[in-house]
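If you are new to this repository, start here. Below is one unmodified record pulled from the training split, so you can see the exact layout before writing a loader.
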Amino acid sequence: MALLLPVLVTGICLFFTYHIYRYLQNLYLARSKGCLPPRRYPHRDPFLGLDFFLETGKIFSENRYLPELLARYNTYGPTFQTNLFGTPSINTIEPENLQAVYSSDFRNWGVEPLRLPAQDPFCGRGFITTDGAAWEHSRAMLKPGFNRANIVAGLEGLGEALDKMMNKIPSDGETVDLQALFFDLYLDTSTEFLFGESYGALSNSSSKESQAFMDAFDHAMFGSGFRIALGPFKFLYRNSKWREACRITHAFADRYVQRALEYRQSVMSGASQDDKAENNDPSHFPSRNKPLLYHLALQTSSPLTLRNEILQTLMAAQGTTAALLSNVFFLLARHPAVYQRLRQEILALGDDDPDFDRLLHLKYLQNILKETLRLHPIFPQMNRIALHPTTLPRGGGPDRTAPLYIPTGTIFDTSAHVLHRQPSIWGPDADAFNPDRWEDADAERETGERDIRWRYMPFGAGPRACVGKYKALGEAAFVVVRVVRR
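And here is the target side for that same chain:
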């Protein structure tokens, strides 16, 4: 007991000495590179920033997060620093900084230290949770499943599911909640795209096992997000229900992984898919448009890798296109003139469904999708962590034009929601829904008068931009055409 006090005092002294040394070292390096500090958020707790964390949690629980985030940037400027559990966090919407983090200085920034420790028990190592060579391998595995041929082939299945959804829309003008129908539509189509079997939400045919899986998946995903938010204090999230949700999710996914590995074996052994289907349950080997899991199984025989990648893909796909469609019709319902103009463009197509290329070239429809994504981006907030010491081009000093020195471990946080509503970029009507603004934006881009890269980022940007971007845009256009033409 007599030794405890000296040991404790020594430990505290070493702790403060180390942090003072790091502070002075970073200050020296910053000055040597001509860097100046950014504006700082006025924390009441300057050590851990718990005031900021608790305030953010409160406004998030009250569904006020995005408006309050916009208000913060309006108050503290386009670049400011906060304290996140003792770690500096740079909050910025400066296009030059975004270009550095997501493109030109991409290798010095990552996500693995932020995501993997929190999400590992749920979805392990995959394209969402890793950096470097591991991420490159995961991305390369996924990319063929999102090529043009697979997207086009998937429109047939989407059309069949959409017919079921349309039958649920009253024909007598009665008010209907399209959002619920869109989420059912994409629950069915995403599970078919990933696993080869539809969930059955639109046909009311989902099994108890499938329902238990989706409930567990949602719970596991929420718990993983909460663990990320807790940062170094994720160990405080001791939730047995979360662990059980992860177990249920794994057991369900593993069954489909095993089927995919059987398919891999049949291909590797030279047996045709049709021959294999004659001797086994044909539902294991769907002949029309193989699910993504089967594409992945042809590239790896690791059950754990397949499970991780398919769960992470389901996380990325969960409700994204459904949210886009919900926002499109939310805005169209409040802008009847826009709706009528869109309807004229669509009715001019005739009764046949346009092909994928035509969908992407329906000018006014695409402008509506762009404008919807500007106001309501798929990924409204994104973050990274500095993997190595580096710099950011802007945001330091009194005039906020000096570069910033970024030590290893610094958090980078940006918001497409805020970026997309800046009057300095989009004009005084930045908060208004105006699809025609894209006529001017496209013309200026073609003539080189303005480049909107790093000013418009609804699907992220750079090498880690959403791999399913064109799938989402093509399918959203397909659904809008069908619904509006009715």
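Two things worth knowing about this chain: The chain has a mean pLDDT of 92. Strands lie at 39-40, 79-84, 87-92, 109-110, 381-386, 390-396, 402-406, 411-415.
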